[in-house]
Amino acid sequence: MALNTDKDLKKFFSIAEVSEMFGLPASVLRYWEKEFPTLRPKKGGNGARMYTKEDIEEVRLVNDLVRVRNMKLAAARELIQRNREGARNTNDLLTRLTNVREQLVAIKRELEEIV
To answer: Does CATH number 3.20.20.140 belong to domain 9-83?
Structure first.
């Protein structure tokens, strides 16, 4: 059985934590909130943004579309609005394929060292 880490138990993340997760300035996250209606973290009494795990998945999707696939903001917004599940499924699939590729590259390196 796997042990829970603090991040597994955590319900809310600050904008600084989310910014660090994705290597994005906090200003980009705030801008994306204006551009993507589906990205709406809760705000505390002091106005601090509190991102849930669902919000983080939304940031991951937007990040993938905009920064990884180089889509324009309007195109990414339209894709998410038009076909949210398709965009998420594609993003999940690409993430899994990337992980598989990294594992295969590591295996290849190990085999090359043996030979």
So the answer is: no
